[in-house]
Amino acid sequence: MHNFVKKLSLILFGVIAGVMISLNFSAVADKTLKAELPPLPIEELRAFTQVFGRIKSDYVEPVDDKKLITEAINGMLVGLDPHSAYLDSEEYKELQIGTQGEFGGLGIQVTMEDGLVKVISPIEDTPAFRAGIKTGDLIIKLDDTAVKGLTLNEAIKRMRGKPDTSITLTIAREGETEPLEFTLVRAIIKIESVKSKLVEPGYGYLRITQFQEHTGENLVQAIEKLFKESKVPMKGLVLDLRNDPGGLLNSAVAVSAAFLPANALVVYTEGRTNDAKMRLFASPEHYLRGTGKDYLTSLPPEVKTVPMVTLVNGGSASASEIVAGALQDHKRSIVMGTQTFGKGSVQTILPLGNNTAIKLTTARYFTPNGQSIQAKGITPDIIDETDDASRQLRESDLNRHLRSNKDEEAGMTSVPKSSNASENKSKNKKTKSKKKSAPVEFGSNDDVLLGRAIEHLKSVNAGTKRKPTSTAKTSS
């Protein structure tokens, strides 16, 4: 048996080394790298093949080679950061469907934290949202199966299923002494990317729930409708990005371009490869897919100048933060709300064949003024401090999160701007809710922050900007 393991290890070592050498030479050819490649990690490869051989020969039950290799790939990616992952054929297909706005499941954005599934944000108008699932909830059981020991992909697969079938989630929630149980009925999740309404004549409300394939076109239709419905010239717009988990990059550029001057810088990225270094502008070649008509040309010209407020919170992530950062840096819109999630890393989908792929973090996002979004987020101009804001889950709370830039990766500490209360006191205007209130539907008549945004727009139009009382506490 020892000879068998030794032979198998040598064979596997040779195969893996050959694959790595092939990949290295391919990288040289594709990217014309001038620097000398690092040597192969011989000892680590030897350890891998020995472990593989031992499992094949000594594990209590026979294990399929494909399963072992797949789990090894999963381990490599999961160990990097919270957003890199291996996608099998089913997951790859679901990812493609999800960007088109329709998929099956419960309607929650999740990540893995300490072996448990943590809720980043429930998606509006879904079973999870209606049941009362909240950001920061820890899912500890799925029906009778403990989440501990499952991978994130395995947990997600269990939550998905045929429409009209039920699943019970057992949740640990901060502030609750006992686990909570929620029985949800699965449904086809159809996400309405853009919602809108005329709050009152001259003041429009636009909400983006997720950045999908047709978000740009849908936004144009919503804006045109608002301008037609208003009986008076448009005096102010509120763009609501709260609890928007992000989505497609080109859609984020399109939304930014709708309000910014032509060819204004929207976002840029920095990574190790030339492909990962991008500068995206408010121009058709950076938001259109294919050679279709530029749908932004039909927008009323006033949309570029009408006063704006952009609403954000801790559930605003990725593409939402790109839009908020671009509008803020170009002084096109006041940003109001709470510190955003801080998901400022770029994931590239790299197909592997057999309808599988890897989702690999390849770059970091930066706002036009050079501010890193990663693990920091966007700091609002007017901060709305609520009782729940300090407990909001953010990127910096996730295990293995990337720091905001290379220097911080080397040892500096990444601190969200909003964590320094005394600094914010001098730089930001703040409002504070008097008491903790139950969650309300965004855009409804009970939406307090929307009301404050409309008040701010009216004060701008009246030439008397409101000066909210600062409620920042002195740092100790």
Automatic annotation (TrEMBL):
Record-linked CDD domains: cpPDZ_CPP-like (cd06782), Peptidase_S41_CPP (cd07560)
Record's keyword terms, sorted: Hydrolase, Protease, Serine protease
Residues of the PDZ domain: 92-160
SMART domains documented for this protein: PDZ, TSPc
Segments of this protein annotated with the region Disordered: 395-476
Record flagged with keyword Hydrolase: yes
Source superkingdom: Bacteria
GO-annotated cellular components: outer membrane-bounded periplasmic space
GO terms under biological process: proteolysis; signal transduction
Keyword presence, Protease: yes
UniProt record similarity statement: Belongs to the peptidase S41A family.
Name this protein carries in UniProt: Carboxyl-terminal processing protease
